Amino acid sequence: MNNIFQGVExxxxxxxxxxxxxxxxxxxxxxxxxxxxKIYVYDNSSTDRTAEVAAREGAIVGHEPFPGKGNxxxxxxxxxxxxxxxxxxxxxxxxxxxxxxxxxxxxxxxxDMVNGARVSTIQDAYRFGHRFGNRVxxxxxxxxxxxxxxxxxxxxxxxxxxxxKSFPAISSGFEIETELTVHALELRMKTAExxxxxxxxxxxSTSKLSTIRDxxxxxxxxxxxxxxxxxxxxxxxxxxxxxxxSMGLAxxxxxxxxxxxxxxxxxxxxxxxxxxxLAFLSMACGLILDTVTHSRREIKRLAYLExxxxxxxxxxxxxxxxxxxxxxxxxxxxxxxxxxxxALLAVS
Length: 348
Description:
This protein is an alpha/beta fold. Helix content is 51%, strand content 12%. The protein is built from eleven helices and nine strands. The protein has helices spanning 23-33, 50-56, 69-79, 99-108, 128-145, 161-164, 176-186, 211-229, 231-260, 266-305, 330-347; strands spanning 10-16, 38-43, 60-63, 84-87, 113-119, 157-160, 191-197, 324-325, 328-329. The strands form two sheets. Strands 3-2-1-4-6-5-7 form a seven-stranded mixed sheet, sandwiched between helices. Strand 1 (10-16), helix 1 (23-33) and strand 2 form a beta-alpha-beta unit. Helix 7 runs parallel beside helix 8 and helix 9 runs antiparallel to helix 10 (266-305). The protein is elongated, with a radius of gyration of 26 Å.
């Protein structure tokens, strides 16, 4: 596996906050698994010696002052240039030896993202609360956006350059994984998911994830993404709730009016009318924003298509990738230019 990625620039991205104990193990593991890759560790204002030990291990160290994994990843995606990006948490819970398999799958099949779905039999490594919350949140995203991933919150992923450079990250914390997943689903990118071993943290290392707090933040992010990416569904549900409430208030008043030709509870009738107006206003907002969302999705798709697809020498050939101008190899373009020049000379 050491030479098959010759000509492909691979970057290993490790966002870290207070991972002094674990990050050296992660760096050594990925240096052994992907010897030619550049390893980047971005320190998120750690209070321990994370940056120092990462630099000592030979990693390229960057810094992000704004707290939160989403902020770190946005900085890394902006700063780092590569053909393939391997994202992994700095807590030494993921298996680095599976990284070549993930990269090879992404290149062979010209994928945009390969997700490492966590598989673990160790209860302390993947606690019940985290496992249950992941299933609930992943199931919610599957129901709304599509059933393409079984572990939406995995921190082990491989990306193509076109994914990374077209990803408009807005998250600040652990909800970034949800945003990554929905981005891939909304643009109908080619993706895959591979089971990967998940182990417990090394002794002395502690998790920064809060089951309740971060779970609520992820749930809020899902709601935000539904409003942004599925406005007709979001405002349609609001319309249905308001319309049902209005009809519930109006029904006894209408029945009384049909029976006596009187409106005994005028304030309730006015309230019912106001709620129904709000319901139709919500539906109108949904219809308008749905058109806007389609336009936004087309713009994101065009930005995505501006970046060439991931390429690799067929079947693991050891020759480096040909230099490219636009989407055509330099040699092919030079040959075509020469042919055109000869044709022009013949005409003249």
